[in-house]
Write the structure tokens for this entry.
Amino acid sequence: MSRQDVTPEEIVAITASRMLADHKVVFAGVGTPLLAAALARRRQAPHLTIVLEGGIIGTRLMPGHLPISTNEMSAAHGAEMLTDVTDIFLFAQRGFFDYGFLGAAQIDKFGNINTSVIGSYAQPRVRLPGSGGANDIISLCNEVLIATVHEPRRFVEKVDFITSPGYLTGEKSREAAGLIFGRVSVVITDLALMDFEPHSRRLRLCAVQRGASVEQVEAATGFELLMADEIGEIDPPSEDELDTYRLLRDGEAAVRRGRAS
């Protein structure tokens, strides 16, 4: 399967799904994080527990009927427990969530995320959705994964507003700010996989997607990336991964129509 047959969003979600292990708990938002978590449950992590901010624990999701909000009852299909948002964040504070899963409108070299405004806060060029539960997820979950499309406008030297704190100004600044729980572990894009260099806490390139180059990643990044000693290559989405992903996203009928066309 060539890279042209797969969308950037599909590459991001499928790569991210591989990061989730079985018998863990993931706190996921709607969109790519939820699809990635649902795909992991269908493959290598059948006992992965998906938690949604609206109070839904253990959702199984109905293919083709994914929610656009964590408060929709369609998000509760097959759920093991329904509670309220207060309980969900209480569980996060107690360290019960292994993974947190976030997207980003802007991200900087220390993993700080902006989903609030583009431009100045007082007079923004673009007003974004804001934090929702994202600040709690990045501050409280044991391990946080960030998944987004790789573009220069997203990977910026300094975010216009810190909605969700990564490693702030690097080194031990996150701990100094009182954020002693959890860590931002990786950033997954349609071009690359990156982690954070342990001392400086700066973003570091670890691997590129099949068909992408280091130069392409650097050109799509608005700051200097650190480089791991060895840059690996990520396996492309398999046909089975892609079929399962599209089944979850579009439903059986849409997948059959796509195969027939």
